[in-house]
Known about the structure:
about 350 residues, alpha/beta, ten-stranded mixed beta sheet, 10 strands
Amino acid sequence: MTVPLRHLVVKPDLRCTARCPTCSLRRELHHSPRTTRRLSLGDWARVLTEAAALGARQFDISGGEPTLYPQLVDLVRLGKRHGMQTQLNTNGSLLGRIDFAGLVSAGLDRVMISLYSARPDTHDAMRGLPGLWGKATASIRQAAELRDRFPRFEIITQTLLCAENLRELPEILTLERDLGSQGTVLSYLEGNLTGEALLPRELLEIFQREVQPRLLDFTARLPFPVRWLARRHVLSLFAHRRRSLEDWSTARYHDGPVRCPVPARMALVLANGDVHPCNIVEYTHEPVMGNLLEQSLPSLWHGTAWEDYRRQPPAHCRFCPMLDQVFVPLVNPGMTAVLTAAGRRLRH
Length: 348
């Protein structure tokens, strides 16, 4: 049976301006000697043409920090040429140094900017980069101001749920809304295979007892009709009905074999041409489906290795939270951001 590709994620530059402690395994992969080769803009044009022929309609540019990529505007333009919804995922550290309006003019539909705390010191410590909080918040505000010129342009934020910021989540959402974010993706810890950043059970109990009620108060003040979706998603955070607090505190997101749709709809391509069937491979470093400097995307997408991966995902899938991410709408946008984010996973 032919499986259509729906979502292409590319990482054209594996360098990053931040050094997040939770990203060590990914940085190790990105710093590998295998990344010495790079896909050229011509190679990316071929990849996007092949992805479009396979059915791709969503195109995310991620990293590393993708705003370090010198031909970012050209890459956005390529995505738009194929009629794809194009999104940029960034930590916001360099947006002030590039022509952000030029990216939107080239066809950028949405930007997702990460903000991990309402406090500068906490955010910068989580990012490993002094001064990033100020740049990230300014970038969100700058992006939001563009909506006067580009009404269909969408701005969302992303927050990683960790011990450092869990108690202040209502303040984070308030700040993101005030800066102009239309909604935020709340991401559970991804790829925590070493267990160094686990959330203590006691903290999760505090979250359910003290923090979640404040979050519900926040959602009750949101405009109709987004408040009902925001409330519903806030109630799903670390929910007992999905798994126990013990599972949440050990980052065990699934008990048994995982029926995950991601490998059947998404392809992730690194700057060196390596192709991953899902996000967790950036942390486990295997299995890689192949390399686009040597093979075509259709040959890999329809190949035996990918078919086997879809049929029998590996054991480490139980530590992947991609199916559990939560999108909390903050304002009444044109609703495309809300509906898109509610229907698919946006964290890469």
